[in-house]
Specification:
Structural class: alpha/beta
Pfam families: HTH_1, LysR_substrate
Number of domains: 3
Helix content: 25-40%
Keywords: DNA-binding, Transcription, Transcription regulation
InterPro entries: LysR_HTH_N (IPR000847), LysR_subst-bd (IPR005119), WH-like_DNA-bd_sf (IPR036388), WH_DNA-bd_sf (IPR036390)
Radius of gyration: 22 Å
CATH class of the largest domain: Alpha Beta
Number of strands: 13
Protein name: LysR family transcriptional regulator
CATH architecture of the largest domain: 3-Layer(aba) Sandwich
Strand content: 15-25%
Strand order of the largest sheet: 8-12-7-11-9-10
Oligomer: single chain
Family: Belongs to the LysR transcriptional regulatory family.
């Protein structure tokens, strides 16, 4: 039994709705169900009962709620006091403009939550191109960075994947790929392909796939989402993206088509490998727990 399990349990007690609780606790509905099921197995009894699609606490659940609530409150008070005492130099974070606002829509509120929870860690963030983030990490200008990548990172940097999605290209209604579900890298030959950067490391699998297939698309830099969206719609470009069936559902003129043979596209958290920064590691864990994708 963990404090996190107790948090999930108490949140579900408030909502009595798996979907609502999963959303505000930053996890999937299935993960929440598994956590509650594990707790029930450990306690040898049901905590909730579902009758006619209405979730309610059992008597055992009511008793356990009364026991769990003060434990979590006391733990939170302990943590809050300890967090207040943390003091550090400013934590310098570089954020790739390729990730916001579409890929990390709640990044701003999560960073603000980090500031509130750890007031003794001044967080300084700046927006940079996808290629510039690792450069500034290597030269010591940044302590941590967020980039879009396909699993690789520059020499001397450590990487943690905050998300993983099927790699796709965004296409317009006038694209020859509009009716397709999958395309191969070879089919990008002759297309104008917008990418978040040209560095050899972050998108190495894409460069390799294009080379092996003999495809020669016209590669152009698409730094920001709205710039990429405009050029995809109005200039019939294709752009590197994550695959989501419901993505841009409000935009009827673009859709995502899976790009076969590539590893997942990710939001990667980078930091220097040889310079351990406890506050950067703390931020990485915080983002893993809080970010929505």
């Amino acid at each position: 039994m963990t404090i996190q399990q107790l948090r999930y349990f108490l949140a579900l007690c408030e909502d009595l709705n798996y979907t609502h609780t999963a959303g505000r606790m930053y996890l999937s509905r299935q993960a929440l169900r598994l956590s509650i099921a594990a707790l029930e197995e450990e306690l040898c009894g049901k905590l909730f009962v579902n009758t006619r699609n209405h979730l309610a606490l059992t008597e055992k659940g009511e008793r356990f709620r009364a026991q769990a609530a003060p434990v979590v409150q006391q733990f939170d008070a302990l943590c809050q006091q300890a967090y207040q005492e943390i003091q550090s130099a400013p934590l310098r974070l570089g954020i790739s403009v390729a990730l916001v606002p579409d890929y990390l829509p709640n990044l701003g509120e999560v960073l603000e939550a980090f500031r509130q929870q750890y007031p003794g860690i001044p967080l300084e963030h700046t927006s940079l191109s996808n290629d510039e983030v690792p450069v500034q990490l290597q030269n010591g200008t940044l302590d941590a960075g967020l980039v879009m990548d396909l699993g690789g990172c520059a020499t001397g940097l450590a990487r943690t994947a905050l998300s993983q999605h099927t790699t796709a290209v965004m296409v317009s209604r006038s694209s020859p790929f509009w009716e397709r579900i999958h395309i191969s890298p070879a089919e990008l030959d002759g297309q104008t392909l917008l990418v978040p950067g040209f560095a050899p490391d972050a998108l190495a699998p894409l460069w390799q796939a294009l080379q092996e297939s003999g495809a020669h698309p016209q590669l152009e830099l698409g730094k920001q989402f709205y710039q990429v969206l405009y050029r995809t719609q109005e200039q019939n470009c294709v752009s590197l993206n994550r695959f989501e069936e419901t993505s841009h559902s409000q935009m009827t003129n673009v859709r995502n088509v899976i790009l076969d043979g590539l590893p997942p596209i990710c939001a990667g958290f980078l930091r220097p490998k040889k310079q351990h920064n406890a506050c950067a590691e703390l931020l990485c864990r915080f983002l893993q727990e809080r970010l929505k994708f």
